[in-house]
Amino acid sequence: MKNLHLIISIIVVIPVGCIYGFYPDFLFEVTLNSIDEANIFKAIMGLYLGFSILWILGILKPSLWKVATVSNIIFMLGLAFGRIFSIIFDGIPTTIFVLGIIGELALGFYALIQLQKKNSN
Question: Which segments cross the bilayer (predicted)?
Fold first, then answer.
């Protein structure tokens, strides 16, 4: 199924983005102490929701599928590699973030495989 990576990403990223924006302490060991910190998390939410909109458009409009898939690859692998760098420099995070790395790597590489399949057709 050529849209599976986009569908899974949408299902995961929209709720996680909203949690980052409105309830960062719900799943994560995070305490926001200033309006600036709240602003950063709302901006992250905006990025997550913006990319999700692009992925939805990629499903609905075949002409945008490649752009949506490339953005999905960059989004997922960018998050995963950032988290890996954090492990190297900062230490092991909580379990939810370790699971996030696994999911991001899986989705990023699956999207890459889907793109390669599409390009070879």
Answer: 7-23, 43-60, 67-89, 95-113
Domain containing residue 57 = 4-120
* DSSP assigned state of 29: S
pTM: 0.93
Q: Which two tokens stand for residue 107?
A: 């989705």
Question: Residue 26 above 90 pLDDT?
Answer: no
For 34-71, letters b (16+ CB in 10 Å) and e give eeeeeeebeeebeebeebbebbbebeeeeebbeebbeb
* pLDDT mean over 65-85: 98
Give the confidence band of 29 by pLDDT, cuts at 50, 70, 90: confident
| Cα pseudo-dihedral 119, 113, 100, 49, rounded to 10 | 20
Number of domains in the chain: 1
